[in-house]
Amino acid sequence: MKYYILFGPPGAGKGTQAGAIAEKFNLKHVSTGELLRAEIAAGTELGQQAKTLIEAGNLVPDSVVEGMIENLFNTLKGVDGFLLDGFPRTLGQAEDLDKMLSARGEKVDAVISLMISDSTIRERLKGRAAIEGRADDANEETISNRIATYHQKTEPLINFYKAAGKYHELNGDGKSIEEVRALVFDLLNQL
Ligand code: AMP
Q1: 184 CA distance to ligand 1 centroid (A)?
Q2: 104 is catalytic
Q3: How far apart are the first and last CA of the chain?
Q4: Most buried residue, 41, 67, 115, 148, by CB count within 10 Å?
Q5: In the chain, alpha helices (H)
Q6: Angle CA(171)–CA(122)–CA(47) in degrees, nearest 5?
Q7: pLDDT in tens, 40-91
Q8: Which residue, by CA, sits nearest to atom 1 of ligand 1?
Q9: 5, 1, 13: which is closest to 123 by C-alpha?
Protein backbone atom coordinates (compact mmCIF):
# COMPACT_ATOMS: atom_id res chain seq x y z
CA MET A 1 0.00 0.00 0.00
CA LYS A 2 1.09 3.53 -0.76
CA TYR A 3 0.59 6.27 1.80
CA TYR A 4 0.76 9.80 0.39
CA ILE A 5 0.14 13.00 2.32
CA LEU A 6 -1.32 15.99 0.52
CA PHE A 7 0.04 18.84 2.59
CA GLY A 8 -0.42 22.61 2.57
CA PRO A 9 -2.11 25.56 4.24
CA PRO A 10 -5.89 26.02 4.11
CA GLY A 11 -6.94 27.05 0.61
CA ALA A 12 -3.87 25.56 -1.08
CA GLY A 13 -6.08 23.34 -3.23
CA LYS A 14 -5.73 20.01 -1.43
CA GLY A 15 -9.42 19.16 -1.61
CA THR A 16 -9.70 20.47 -5.17
CA GLN A 17 -6.82 18.32 -6.43
CA ALA A 18 -7.37 15.21 -4.33
CA GLY A 19 -10.22 13.63 -6.32
CA ALA A 20 -8.37 13.54 -9.64
CA ILE A 21 -5.14 12.34 -8.02
CA ALA A 22 -6.92 9.58 -6.11
CA GLU A 23 -8.72 8.42 -9.25
CA LYS A 24 -5.61 8.36 -11.43
CA PHE A 25 -3.46 6.46 -8.91
CA ASN A 26 -6.25 4.26 -7.41
CA LEU A 27 -5.93 5.80 -3.97
CA LYS A 28 -8.57 6.37 -1.32
CA HIS A 29 -8.88 10.10 -0.67
CA VAL A 30 -9.27 10.69 3.05
CA SER A 31 -10.00 14.24 4.20
CA THR A 32 -10.22 14.61 7.98
CA GLY A 33 -11.96 17.98 7.48
CA GLU A 34 -14.66 16.32 5.33
CA LEU A 35 -15.06 13.47 7.83
CA LEU A 36 -15.51 16.01 10.61
CA ARG A 37 -18.02 18.05 8.60
CA ALA A 38 -19.99 14.83 7.98
CA GLU A 39 -20.08 14.19 11.74
CA ILE A 40 -21.37 17.74 12.29
CA ALA A 41 -24.04 17.32 9.60
CA ALA A 42 -25.13 14.01 11.14
CA GLY A 43 -25.36 15.67 14.55
CA THR A 44 -23.22 13.07 16.32
CA GLU A 45 -21.65 13.77 19.70
CA LEU A 46 -18.21 13.91 18.08
CA GLY A 47 -19.59 16.40 15.55
CA GLN A 48 -21.05 18.59 18.24
CA GLN A 49 -17.72 18.68 20.07
CA ALA A 50 -15.79 19.40 16.86
CA LYS A 51 -18.13 22.15 15.61
CA THR A 52 -17.13 24.86 18.08
CA LEU A 53 -13.43 24.19 17.56
CA ILE A 54 -13.69 24.14 13.76
CA GLU A 55 -15.81 27.29 13.58
CA ALA A 56 -13.25 29.13 15.72
CA GLY A 57 -10.45 28.01 13.38
CA ASN A 58 -8.87 25.71 15.98
CA LEU A 59 -7.79 22.11 15.57
CA VAL A 60 -9.75 19.22 17.05
CA PRO A 61 -7.78 16.94 19.43
CA ASP A 62 -5.20 14.60 17.85
CA SER A 63 -6.91 11.53 19.34
CA VAL A 64 -10.17 12.32 17.49
CA VAL A 65 -8.67 12.51 13.99
CA GLU A 66 -6.24 9.66 14.64
CA GLY A 67 -9.16 7.42 15.62
CA MET A 68 -10.97 8.23 12.36
CA ILE A 69 -7.82 7.55 10.31
CA GLU A 70 -7.02 4.26 12.01
CA ASN A 71 -10.58 3.12 11.50
CA LEU A 72 -10.26 3.73 7.74
CA PHE A 73 -6.89 1.97 7.53
CA ASN A 74 -8.51 -1.03 9.20
CA THR A 75 -11.63 -1.18 7.08
CA LEU A 76 -10.81 -0.05 3.55
CA LYS A 77 -9.95 -2.64 0.94
CA GLY A 78 -9.51 -2.62 -2.82
CA VAL A 79 -7.28 0.43 -3.18
CA ASP A 80 -3.56 0.75 -3.93
CA GLY A 81 -3.10 3.25 -1.16
CA PHE A 82 -4.29 6.32 0.67
CA LEU A 83 -4.13 10.02 -0.12
CA LEU A 84 -4.32 11.80 3.22
CA ASP A 85 -5.65 15.35 2.95
CA GLY A 86 -5.52 17.60 6.01
CA PHE A 87 -3.86 14.91 8.13
CA PRO A 88 -1.40 14.97 9.83
CA ARG A 89 -1.63 18.58 11.01
CA THR A 90 0.51 18.48 14.17
CA LEU A 91 3.87 16.89 14.99
CA GLY A 92 2.05 14.57 17.40
CA GLN A 93 -0.22 13.37 14.58
CA ALA A 94 2.79 12.85 12.28
CA GLU A 95 4.59 10.80 14.92
CA ASP A 96 1.49 8.77 15.70
CA LEU A 97 0.91 8.16 11.99
CA ASP A 98 4.45 6.76 11.71
CA LYS A 99 3.71 4.45 14.65
CA MET A 100 0.34 3.39 13.23
CA LEU A 101 1.93 2.56 9.88
CA SER A 102 5.02 0.83 11.22
CA ALA A 103 2.76 -1.44 13.31
CA ARG A 104 1.27 -2.54 9.97
CA GLY A 105 4.67 -2.88 8.27
CA GLU A 106 3.95 0.25 6.24
CA LYS A 107 5.32 3.80 5.99
CA VAL A 108 4.57 7.25 4.59
CA ASP A 109 5.80 7.16 0.99
CA ALA A 110 5.82 10.85 0.16
CA VAL A 111 4.48 14.24 1.17
CA ILE A 112 3.21 16.42 -1.65
CA SER A 113 3.09 19.97 -0.42
CA LEU A 114 0.99 22.60 -2.21
CA MET A 115 2.39 25.91 -1.06
CA ILE A 116 0.74 29.32 -1.32
CA SER A 117 1.35 32.67 0.40
CA ASP A 118 -0.79 33.99 3.26
CA SER A 119 -2.35 36.59 0.96
CA THR A 120 -3.41 33.85 -1.50
CA ILE A 121 -4.86 31.84 1.44
CA ARG A 122 -7.07 34.81 2.40
CA GLU A 123 -8.21 35.41 -1.18
CA ARG A 124 -9.02 31.73 -1.79
CA LEU A 125 -10.89 31.17 1.48
CA LYS A 126 -13.05 34.24 0.90
CA GLY A 127 -13.81 33.04 -2.63
CA ARG A 128 -14.64 29.56 -1.34
CA ALA A 129 -16.95 30.93 1.38
CA ALA A 130 -19.17 32.36 -1.35
CA ILE A 131 -19.27 29.06 -3.24
CA GLU A 132 -19.25 26.29 -0.60
CA GLY A 133 -20.73 28.16 2.37
CA ARG A 134 -18.29 26.69 4.89
CA ALA A 135 -18.74 28.44 8.25
CA ASP A 136 -14.99 28.43 8.90
CA ASP A 137 -14.28 30.33 5.64
CA ALA A 138 -16.85 33.03 6.22
CA ASN A 139 -15.34 35.25 8.85
CA GLU A 140 -12.09 37.16 8.89
CA GLU A 141 -11.24 36.27 12.48
CA THR A 142 -11.61 32.52 11.87
CA ILE A 143 -9.50 32.78 8.72
CA SER A 144 -6.75 34.63 10.65
CA ASN A 145 -6.82 31.99 13.35
CA ARG A 146 -6.59 29.17 10.81
CA ILE A 147 -3.57 30.83 9.20
CA ALA A 148 -1.93 31.30 12.62
CA THR A 149 -2.74 27.69 13.59
CA TYR A 150 -1.20 26.49 10.32
CA HIS A 151 2.05 28.38 10.96
CA GLN A 152 2.30 27.36 14.62
CA LYS A 153 1.16 23.75 14.57
CA THR A 154 1.33 22.43 11.00
CA GLU A 155 4.30 24.18 9.38
CA PRO A 156 6.81 22.35 11.65
CA LEU A 157 5.86 19.17 9.77
CA ILE A 158 7.80 20.50 6.77
CA ASN A 159 11.12 19.99 8.57
CA PHE A 160 9.93 16.69 10.03
CA TYR A 161 9.28 15.27 6.55
CA LYS A 162 12.34 16.98 5.00
CA ALA A 163 14.49 15.21 7.60
CA ALA A 164 12.84 11.94 6.53
CA GLY A 165 13.62 12.73 2.87
CA LYS A 166 9.91 12.59 1.97
CA TYR A 167 9.01 16.23 1.39
CA HIS A 168 8.17 17.49 -2.13
CA GLU A 169 6.95 21.06 -2.53
CA LEU A 170 5.01 22.58 -5.44
CA ASN A 171 4.23 26.27 -5.55
CA GLY A 172 0.57 26.97 -6.28
CA ASP A 173 0.63 30.77 -6.24
CA GLY A 174 -0.69 32.19 -9.49
CA LYS A 175 -1.25 28.74 -11.03
CA SER A 176 -4.51 27.36 -12.35
CA ILE A 177 -6.11 24.18 -11.00
CA GLU A 178 -5.05 22.34 -14.18
CA GLU A 179 -1.44 23.57 -13.93
CA VAL A 180 -1.12 22.40 -10.32
CA ARG A 181 -2.76 19.07 -11.17
CA ALA A 182 -0.24 18.49 -13.97
CA LEU A 183 2.63 19.21 -11.57
CA VAL A 184 1.26 16.76 -9.00
CA PHE A 185 0.78 14.04 -11.64
CA ASP A 186 4.38 14.54 -12.88
CA LEU A 187 5.68 14.31 -9.35
CA LEU A 188 3.75 11.14 -8.50
CA ASN A 189 4.79 9.53 -11.77
CA GLN A 190 8.44 10.17 -10.89
CA LEU A 191 8.21 8.85 -7.31
P1 AMP B 1 -10.02 21.20 6.33
O2 AMP B 1 -11.24 20.77 5.59
O3 AMP B 1 -8.85 20.25 6.14
O4 AMP B 1 -9.64 22.63 6.06
O5 AMP B 1 -10.37 21.10 7.88
C6 AMP B 1 -11.37 21.92 8.46
C7 AMP B 1 -11.17 21.97 9.95
O8 AMP B 1 -11.32 20.67 10.52
C9 AMP B 1 -9.80 22.44 10.43
O10 AMP B 1 -9.67 23.86 10.45
C11 AMP B 1 -9.75 21.82 11.83
O12 AMP B 1 -10.54 22.55 12.73
C13 AMP B 1 -10.42 20.48 11.60
N14 AMP B 1 -9.42 19.46 11.20
C15 AMP B 1 -9.31 18.85 9.99
N16 AMP B 1 -8.29 17.98 9.97
C17 AMP B 1 -7.72 18.05 11.21
C18 AMP B 1 -6.61 17.40 11.81
N19 AMP B 1 -5.83 16.53 11.14
N20 AMP B 1 -6.33 17.72 13.10
C21 AMP B 1 -7.08 18.58 13.79
N22 AMP B 1 -8.13 19.24 13.29
C23 AMP B 1 -8.45 18.97 12.00
Answers
A1: 22
A2: no
A3: 14
A4: 115
A5: 14-24, 32-42, 45-55, 62-75, 91-102, 118-132, 135-138, 140-149, 156-163, 177-190
A6: 100
A7: 999 999 999 999 999 999 999 999 999 999 999 998 888 899 999 999 999 9
A8: 33
A9: 13
